[in-house]
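no rush on this but wanted to send it before i forget. what follows is a protein written twice so to speak, once as letters and once as structure tokens for the fold. mainly i need to know what kind of three dimensional shape the backbone takes. thanks a lot i owe you, the record is right below.
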Amino acid sequence: MPSITDRMRKRFIVVSSDVDLNAAIAAATPAGWEMVAVTDLEDLGAWQEILLHRFLLLNLDDAVVDDPVGLVDTIRREYQLNIAIFCIGGDQEQRDVARMARADRFFGREETLARLPEFFAQFGW
């Protein structure tokens, strides 16, 4: 069972195998925040582990990530979690399907990097 200290840690998930993207996100991460990079939800453990993170960045363009839209569906429908899911990239068809699965917002790569400070401020409670 997680402690209160575990629950209060400022952590976020990046679902991506793109080394350059992950490095850019890590470089933009302020002190006091922890980035957890995975390519599969199972890498995080049980669904309760996802709840210990403030938001999730999902790279829709990553060929290594198996079924990114299915990942959104699993989080929302199967796990019934309301963690913020911000999608990076993807074509209009992918975005439409991810939107139907209830992903929250969609940004291009550069826009995501530019908006990271906003995300950290919003979820820094």
About this structure: The CA atoms of residues 55 and 119 lie 8 Å apart. The mean pLDDT is 94.
